[in-house]
Design brief:
11% of the residues lie in helices and 14% in strands. The protein is an alpha+beta fold. Among the domains are: 1-38, no CATH class; 41-110 and 118-137 and 245-257, no CATH class. The strands form five sheets. Strands 3-11-4 form a three-stranded antiparallel beta sheet, with no helix packed on it.
């Protein structure tokens, strides 16, 4: 009977066992893979350094299609999960996750009960769907998403009824103009006789008193102003606002071999 290690139960040959090097090494390798804490196939990790320096057992995660034969163990995991990141060409390839510019969130119904922290009603995508991608870098608010508020400003209205003072037209009072009596009858003078036969002369250039003709003077009377409005200026440009939490950029890798 082979011996086993205390912590992880790794099998190893004991002195009484017949030599079987190939089998013993295979058993040890199998036990290490299954029992020693390590990165299992399918595990995703952050890689803080250059993409060209990733381990030989890892692949960058940018949504690419990879061989089902070369990465058979990873392909089996993808198949068992109904190819959550894409089934490739449907026969020889499958897709791994596209984690470019994305952070990962725990599946909303892990353990069988949904936490309802990522829902289709709010985010547009259900957090219970393995491989679902949701979220944007920026968001433009719709009117319905803006908090209720009001704007103040003066609206247009009629002015109060009022009047303006002014002088209206009319006849002038009756009056006379003085005339100079003349005792000669020539030039531009006119002769006329009164009832007593006395001759009188008046100068045609002199004015006689009388009433002025009926007339008016223009003036503006009071009244309401025309109905009108005053504009209230709008604010805001309708642009998107930042929707990112504090973030650090890294490479994302998955163990594939």
């Amino acid at each position: 009977m082979p011996g086993t290690t205390t912590n992880y139960g790794l099998r190893y040959p004991v002195g009484t066992d017949a030599p079987n090097v190939a089998t013993d090494i295979q058993n040890l390798a199998t036990d290490v893979d299954s029992k020693v804490p390590a990165v299992p196939i399918g595990a995703s990790l952050d890689w803080d350094y250059a993409a060209a320096s990733i381990p030989s057992w890892a692949l960058l995660q940018y949504g690419q299609a990879v061989s089902r034969t070369t990465y058979a163990a990873l392909a089996a995991l993808a198949s068992a999960a109904s190819y959550p990141h894409g089934s490739g060409d449907g026969s020889t390839t499958f897709n791994i996750a596209d984690k470019r510019g994305r952070v990962a969130a725990g599946k909303d119904d892990m353990g069988g009960t949904a936490a309802n922290r990522i829902t289709a009603a709010i985010s547009g995508t259900a957090g219970t769907v393995l491989g679902a991608a949701v979220g944007t870098e920026g968001v433009t608010l719709a009117t319905a998403q803006i908090p209720s508020h009001s704007h103040t400003g003066a609206t247009g209205t009629f002015s109060a009824d009022h009047s303006h003072s002014g002088t209206s037209g009319g006849r002038s009072a009756a009056h006379t103009h003085a005339l100079n009596a003349l005792t000669y009858a020539f030039g531009s003078d006119t002769q006329w006789s009164d009832y007593n036969g006395v001759n009188h002369f008046i100068n045609n250039n002199a004015g006689m008193g009388t009433e002025s003709a009926d007339h008016s003077h223009g003036t503006t009377t009071g009244g309401s102003s025309a109905n009108h409005t005053h504009g209230i200026s709008a604010e805001g440009g309708g642009g998107a606002h930042l929707n990112m939490s504090p973030t650090i950029i890294v490479n994302k890798i998955v163990r594939a071999l």
